[in-house]
Write a structure and sequence with these properties.
Layout: E1 2-4, E2 19-25, E3 28-34, E4 37-39, E5 51-59, E6 64-71, E7 82-85, H1 96-114, E8 126-127, E9 134-135, E10 142-143, E11 148-159, E12 162-169, E13 181-184, H2 191-203, E14 206-218, E15 223-234, E16 246-250, H3 264-277
Parallel strand pairs: 2-6, 11-15
Antiparallel strand pairs: 1-5, 2-3, 3-4, 3-7, 5-6, 8-9, 9-10, 11-12, 11-13, 12-16, 14-15
Amino acid sequence: MSLSFSPAVAPPTENNTPAFWFIFRGADLLVLDEGETAVLPQSIHELEFLRQHYLGWIEEETAATHCFAAEVAEETDPPPDMQFAGLRQLFNRLPTDQLWLAGRAVQIVDWDRTHQFCSRCATPNEILDHERAKKCPNCGLTTYPRIAPAIIVRIDREIDGVPHLLLARNGRWRRGWYSVLAGFVEPGETLEQCVHREVFEETGLRLKNVRYFGSQPWPFPNSLMVGFTADYAGGDIVLEEEELEDANWFTVDSLPNLPSSMSIARRLVDAFIEEVKSK
C-alpha cells in the first residue's frame, strides 16, 4: 500500500466514492471497535462537522481510496458500535499506514482550528485551494500547518569493552520505562547543535561522532522527530531534575522497559541491539 498526497487536487464529488474518514473529537479518532483491532469509518454516519479537509488518497492494487479529515463538536456521541480513541491507544490496532495518516489528519484539523484568524491583523483567514496554507485577505500573511522539529539521540559507549547505551526516564512516565534523550530545536540552531545542547543540559555529557539515523512525524501534538546516534566523549551523568528522574548506561542484556515499537525511539534501541549481536 502506498500513500499519495495532492492537496491541489479537488476532492471527489461523487458520494459513492470509496473513502476513509479520519473524524476527530478533540484529539480522539472515531473508529469501529473490534476488540484488538480498530477500523476507520468509510462513511460520515450523518455526523455534523465543524471543519473538513481532503487529505489525498491511498493507492492499493486495484483502486484508490480517498481520505478526509474532519472534526465534530466535543459533545458529539459516537455512532453505535464505534468509539473515540486517542492515537496512542490505537497503536497496533490500526494498520500502520492509516495510523500515521491519522497523525497527519489530526495536525491539519488542529491547525485549521487554531489559525482561524490572522495573527498579525486579526482578520479571518482564507484557506488556499492550491496548497496546504491559509492567507489573510487583508494583510496577505500566509500561515502553514505548524511543525515543531525535535531531535532524538541514542548515545553509545564502551565500558570495559562492553557496548552500552544511555537511557533515561522522565518522572511523568510509567514507572520503570526508559527511552533515549530528546528535545526541541531552538531558533537559529542546527540539528547537530541541538543534539549537543540537549544532552549536555539534561545529563552533563559531551558527545562526538553525531550521525543522522532517520526521522518520524510524531503528532503529539505536532513534532517531527529527527533521529541521531552519537558516541560518548566525556563527563559524568548530572541530571537536570526538572526533566529527568534517572539516567544510566545499559547493555543489551540489562535493558529496562522500552517505548512502543511504533516509535523512532524504539527503532534506535533496536538498531543498537542488532549492531551488538552482529559483532
